[in-house]
Amino acid sequence: MIRILSLTLALCATVAGTARAEVAIEIEEVTSPGGITAWLVEDHTIPFTALEIRFEGGTSLDEPDSLGAVNLMTGLLEEGAGEMEAREFQAAREDLAASFSFDVGSDTLSVSARMLTENRAAAVDLLREALVAPRFDPVAIERVRGQVQSILAQDAQNPRRLASRAFYEAAFGDHPYGRPDNGTPESVAALTRADLLAAHEAALTRESVHVGAVGDITPEELGALLDELLGDLPEEGPELPGHVEFGLAGGVEVIDYPTPQSVALFGQPGLEREDEDFFAAYILNHILGGGGFESRLMTELREKRGLTYGISTDLVPLENAEFWIGSVASANDRMATAIEVIRDEWARIAEEGVTQGELDAAKTYLTGEYPLRFDGNGQIAGILVGMQVTGLPQSYVTERNEFIEAVTLEEINRVAAERVDPEALHFVVVGRPEGLDGAQGARAPRVTLPEVVLPEAVPAAR
Questions:
Q1: What percent of the chain has pLDDT above 90?
Q2: Number of alpha carbons in the 13 Å side-chain half-sphere of residue 8
Q3: What is the mean pLDDT of residues 354-380?
Q4: CB atoms inside a 10 Å sphere around CB 433
Q5: In a 3-state reduction of DSSP, which class is residue 431?
Q6: How much is the average pLDDT of 157-180?
Q7: Cα–Cα separations (whole angstroms), residue 354 to 286, 325, 326, 365, 419
């Protein structure tokens, strides 16, 4: 089955005098003979194809007694497959001038592939071996296990990683979001080959897969490719985790750590991606802390007071949780002031809202930068698969800027009053900040805590 959506994107140049460019794209929904669905943008201008593959579940599929298994398994997918050991596999990939990369986060396991048309069949065969028949050789397991352990050891000495780990653990508790993606030193050391095989069977399944393809390939060729590449994976996997509420109330938690500069993560409950107020909240976040040097928080903390080199906020709708999050670093003797200013700005935008000028400037930026994301086959393939994972229709590509433009001043200020909650703002501070000695939950450093990496926001969803 093929569905086609034609669209035109205006690429706005920032250099004075540059003409406005138009890019026409057709998104086609392709279903393989074996029933695997993908979104395709054909582009035969160069003999090259980009594939982006996402499997839902990610590290949230780790069993409580085998934390880090999905992460370690993902790191081993290119360390030998089928009849090839690690070096043979890598040499074969290089001979084909193909590029494969594998990554995993809390919600998804991602595979990126780039291949020339003349080598596509052989590249797909090689990638299939990595996905369907990874070897998990003992030597490779120990090598990659050592790499993960090294990362965990570095994270245990990194204030930002410590703050991230403590924040997510406190916010989500026993839910998989509250567990470390990479596992712990103890859990990773205990992982067996059987754990990795179980993680592979759970994480790579046909029912959980989404595919975006862009480049020199027809719908018929893509359909055959999908069955060849993914057809031998298990049909079904374990049940995915359910929704979890953001579990932090307002307050400050200090984790004592010997460093001259404190690091803080802060957050409050957010909005689901499907919430009718999401776009207004998204623009509001841009004005408050997501707009770089133009944001209110950057102006107040950096430009006016010199409290930090940078501060940012993000509205995060994960698969099973929604929250508003921010991060800042400041000298120990200035962190208390930084927190006070952040709370004041959180309260000010809730009470006073934003101005028409701020709203107009944010709209101009957000609508102007969006088309620039569609620059290159790989970027477009990533957007296509991200839209599928997020549950967005193909028409979203053309409608997204209309949603931004439709937000009124009255609407955004209502959302500010209803959704921005300074009393709910919770800070996790790692360091030795002065003036926060009485903060709730002050405790000794937990240097074995690795990072829970915040999943990257889906580009198309913004």
A1: 87
A2: 4
A3: 95
A4: 27
A5: strand
A6: 96
A7: 11, 20, 19, 16, 14
SS3 74: helix
User: Is the pLDDT assigned to residue 18 strictly greater than 50?
Assistant: no
H/E run at residue 169: helix 159-172
For residues 230 and 190, what is the distance between their CA atoms, to the nearest angstrom? 30
Tokens of 293: 């040097």
**Alpha-carbon Rg for the chain in angstroms:** 23
The residue written with tokens 């592939």 in the block is 113
Which pLDDT band holds residue 437 (cuts at 50, 70, 90)?
A: low
Phi, psi of 40 (to 5 degrees): -125, 140
Amino acid identity for residue 405 in this structure? E
Packing angle between helix 335-352 and helix 409-419, nearest 10 degrees?
130
287 touches 233 (CB < 8 A): no
| Cα–Cα distance for residue pair 55/74, rounded to 1 Å | 12
In 3D, which of 427, 263, 253, 265 has the Cα closest to residue 332? 263
* Amino acid code (one letter) for 176: P
Helix (H, G, I), strand (E, B) or coil at 31: strand
> What single DSSP character describes residue 435?
T
How confident is the model at residue 259, as a pLDDT? 94
Looking at the DSSP bridge assignments, the partners of residue 255 are 430, 443
**How many Cβ atoms sit within 10 Å of the Cβ of residue 238?**
14
Summarize the confidence of residues 158-185 as an average pLDDT.
96
- SS3 at position 132: helix
Helix, strand, coil shares of the chain, percent, nearest 5, are 45, 20, 35
Nearest to 431 by CA among 330, 327, 339, 343: 330
Half-sphere exposure of residue 18: CA atoms within 13 angstroms, side-chain side: 9
CA distance 457 to 462: 8
Cross-strand bridge partners of residue 268: 324
Tokens of 255: 């984790």
Indicate if the pLDDT at residue 396 is higher than 50: yes
Return all residues near 126 (Cβ < 8 A) that are at least 6 apart.
81, 89, 92, 93, 96, 98, 100
Identify which of 167, 410, 153, 160 has the alpha carbon closest to the alpha carbon of residue 262: 160
3-state secondary structure (DSSP) of residue 126: helix
pTM: predicted TM-score of the whole model, two decimal places: 0.89
- Tell me the CB-side half-sphere exposure of residue 331, using CA atoms within 13 A: 6
Report the chain's mean pLDDT, rounded to a whole number: 90
Predicted local confidence at residue 446, as pLDDT: 33
